[in-house]
Amino acid sequence: MADNQFNSKDFILGTFIGAAVGALTALLMTPKTGKEFRDDINTGANQVKKKAYDWKEVAQEKGTNWKDKAYTTGSDLKKKAMESTSQVTKTAAEKTKDVTQGVQSKLKEKRKKEDEALEKAENVAEAMEEAAEELEKKN
Fold first, then answer.
1. Tens of pLDDT along 80-99?
2. pLDDT value at 1 more than 50
3. CA dist 98 → 86, 103, 111, 127 (Å)
4. Residues 6 or more apart from 55 whose CB is under 8 A from it?
5. DSSP letter string over 67-127?
6. How far apart are CA 74 and CA 11, in angstroms?
7. Distance between CA atoms of residues 85 and 100, nearest Å
8. How many CA atoms does the CB half-sphere of 13 hold within 13 Å?
9. CB atoms < 10 A from the CB of 119, how many?
């Protein structure tokens, strides 16, 4: 699948090679003296060198821009992740606190009922002892 995709690097390289071959062909096909021909080749080589230098500068500039954008985007994503994690942690802490308070409240209520039941049972036991003592006195 990668072989079928358009690759800009290959296109630029093909354009560069095609331009060089075209320029060389044009130079070779025109009737000129040796000195004129060498001057033309030298001029063409200098033009190709200048274009290559210009392309290098553009590539470096774009690479720097992409690097900066990647860094900025990465920093933004990191910040959002940290904020989300902080919010989740805060929410979990609040929920845990609410659940703990609910459990403690129910536990206190249950203990209170147990204490009341125990007090009533003690009252009943005392009443039974008193009743038993009265029965013994009557017998």
1. 999 999 999 999 999 999 99
2. no
3. 18, 9, 20, 43
4. 12, 16
5. HHHHHHHHHHHHHHHHHHHHHHHHHHHHHHHHHHHHHHHHHHHHHHHHHHHHHHHHHHHHH
6. 30
7. 22
8. 5
9. 10
Per-residue pLDDT tens over the stretch 95-121: 999 999 999 999 999 999 998 988 988
**Residue 134, both tokens:** 């009265």
Q: Please tell me what DSSP assigns to residue 30.
A: S
Distance separating alpha carbons of residues 1 and 20, to the nearest angstrom: 30
Q: Which of 117, 113, 139 is nearest to 125 (CA)?
A: 117
Phi, psi of 129, rounded to the nearest 5 degrees: -65, -45
Of the candidates 9, 12, 8, the residue with the CA atom closest to the CA atom of residue 20: 12
Tokens 């006195």 belong to residue: 137
User: What distance in Å separates the CA atoms of residue 35 and residue 42, rounded to the nearest whole number?
Assistant: 10
Tell me the C-alpha distance between 53 and 95, whole Å.
62
Distant-in-sequence, close-in-space partners of 47: CB < 8 Å, separation ≥ 6: 23
